[in-house]
Design a protein that fits this description.
By secondary structure, the chain is mostly helical. The protein contains 10 helices and 2 strands.
Length: 246
């Protein structure tokens, strides 16, 4: 592959773009540095000029994702809407980033949840916490002033809510990736999501079901991202692995 001369930052972005694509198609563990440099048409020296290791590449890719969503959330905070609407949009914005490439998100989630990667997972969670918890606290402060949220310490409650979100994401990821025989029951995913959202509503003193934002279409799209999955058919709702909705 013939490569044109690129500025250093542009070359690094090119590596990150390719890495995100390969992680989605092959999975993190099967994406080697050799494969990356082969597809990009450069030497290993060019790769190691920008990244210390494949793990460092993943770290940079995740940091770039956080940076992208940070810009969207800053714009969200500046909108003149009620706090409950801002909080809903805050949650949907975070989900939209992962939803841009569900297969890649699941592959990265599977890698990060391995015991051997606990340090990396903790580092990424701290990075996200530092970026987004202050934004969440700002929304909760507004909600308290509007008398829509009933809480005493927005900063502390924001940290608790964020930790609930981390726990929910881990529970959903494990359900998607570790279900026996890859048999995923839609109702179980919905139950996990709605139970955590109910806990968040109670912690911030918001109206019941005001944060129940998921739907079957969204959950099915995550199930479809798992290769060779099966969906358990309930008596009330027969679910197809490849539904008509896109």
């Amino acid at each position: 592959m013939t490569q044109t001369n690129l500025k250093p930052n542009a070359r690094k972005e090119e590596f990150l773009d390719l890495a995100e694509d390969l992680f989605a198609r092959l999975g993190y563990e099967k994406t080697s540095v050799d494969r990356i440099v082969f597809e990009i048409g450069l030497s290993k020296g060019a790769f190691y000029h920008h990244f210390k290791s494949k793990s460092d590449l993943l770290d940079a890719a995740l940091a770039r994702m956080l940076q992208r969503v940070e810009g969207q959330l800053i714009e969200l905070l500046e909108t003149k809407v009620p706090a409950i609407e801002k909080l809903r949009n805050f949650i949907l914005c975070l989900d939209a980033v992962k939803s841009e490439n569900r297969k890649s998100s699941l592959q990265i989630g599977k890698f990060l949840l391995q015991d051997a990667n606990a340090i990396l997972l903790g580092r990424m969670r701290r990075a996200a916490n530092l970026r987004f918890v202050p934004m969440l606290a700002t929304i909760l402060e507004q909600g308290a002033l509007e008398a829509k949220f009933h809480l005493d310490n927005p900063q502390l409650v924001a940290r608790i809510v964020w930790e609930l979100g981390e726990a929910m994401e881990e529970a959903l990821t494990r359900q998607l990736l570790e279900a026996p025989g890859n048999r995923i029951e839609l109702s179980e995913l919905s139950n996990i999501y709605n139970t955590y959202m109910m806990a968040v509503e109670r912690v911030i003193g918001a109206p019941e079901k005001s944060l129940h934002l998921t739907d079957d279409k969204m959950l099915r799209s995550w199930i479809k991202a798992i290769p060779h999955n099966e969906v358990i058919r309930s008596q009330t709702d027969i679910l197809q692995i490849f539904p008509r909705d896109r």
